[in-house]
Write a structure and sequence with these properties.
- The structure is a single chain.
- By secondary structure, this protein is of the alpha/beta class.
- It folds into 2 domains: 1-26 and 116-215, 3-Layer(aba) Sandwich (Rossmann fold); 31-115, P-loop containing nucleotide triphosphate hydrolases (Rossmann fold, 3-Layer(aba) Sandwich).
- The chain has helices at residues 13-24, 31-44, 52-61, 87-94, 98-111, 124-128, 142-155, 162-178, 200-214, and strands spanning 2-6, 27-30, 64-66, 71-73, 76-77, 117-121, 134-139, 191-194.
- Strands 2-6-1-7-8 form a 5-stranded parallel beta sheet.
- Helix 2 (31-44) crosses helix 4 (87-94), helix 2 (31-44) crosses helix 5 (98-111) and helix 7 (142-155) packs across helix 8 (162-178).
- The protein is globular and about 50 Å long.
- The chain binds 2'-deoxycytidine-5'-monophosphate.
- 2'-deoxycytidine-5'-monophosphate is lined by residues 9, 31-32, 35-36, 91-92, 95, 121-123, 172, 176.
């Protein structure tokens, strides 16, 4: 079974999707982490995005392993590195590239081949799995999402302000929604949940309730 959870940065997708996957005993797949890891590795290895052949060749051989708990590049866990700047803002740019999107989409489909999954991202219900069994689209205001992201960032104490965080979210949304390929968009048949004024537990209950009711 495939459960798709899409939405913008800071809408609570990861927390919700992880919890829903635990309740159902499904594999959790954070596709943003996959785009981040690809961006991280391309920057680290100095790969020029302008050279399509070089990029394809690199991605064909990339040593990237995704599990529900960690993401590995060349055998090392890179969970923390992929959440830091400049990777966050660069990922939004890199994920516009058709070669990178095609690689990431294939990678994500493969992960779901032998597993029941809860997959979260931007284009899961529209592009990666248009026939997903269940589709949800989480939203929240910029302000609320900025505050959530700020709280997360503050844990690693990297000195960013709340205003900068809200602005970064605004720019990333614009980028993700306006790109030509697989933009951030609610699938016509997705259930939309605005998480601005409700707690994460209520969102999880709503999703689980919906799945159990329909299944
Ligand atoms: O979910 P996240 O914030 O970790 O995602 C990081 C970036 O990756 C996001 O700005 C856009 C890109 N992304 C994407 O293009 N498609 C996805 N399915 C998931 C993420």
């Amino acid at each position: 079974m495939i459960i798709a959870i899409d939405g913008p940065a800071g809408a609570g997708k990861s927390t919700v999707a992880r919890k829903v996957s635990e309740i159902l005993g499904f594999m959790f797949i954070d596709t943003g982490a996959i785009y981040r890891a690809v961006t991280y590795s391309l920057i680290k290895d100095n790969i020029n995005l302008g050279n399509k052949e070089e990029l394809e060749c690199y991605l064909n051989r990339i040593d990237l392993i995704y599990t529900s708990d960690h993401i590995y590049f060349q055998g090392s866990i890179i969970d923390r590195e992929i959440r830091e700047e400049p990777i966050s803002s660069k990922t939004s740019d890199y994920s516009k590239n058709p070669v990178i999107r095609s690689f990431a989409t294939g990678f994500q489909r493969k992960l779901a081949e032998n597993n029941d999954v809860v997959m979260e991202g931007r284009d899961i219900g529209t592009v990666v799995f248009p026939n997903a069994d269940f589709k949800f689209f989480l939203t929240a205001s910029h302000e609320v999402r900025g505050r959530r992201r700020y709280k997360e960032l503050k844990k690693s104490d990297n000195g960013v302000s709340l205003e900068e965080t809200i602005e970064a979210i605004r720019i990333r949304d614009k980028n993700d929604s306006n790109r030509e390929l697989a933009p951030l968009k609610k699938a016509a048949d997705a259930v939309e949940i605005d998480t601005s004024n409700i707690g994460i537990d209520q969102v999880i209950d709503a999703i689980i309730g919906y799945i159990r009711m329909e299944d």
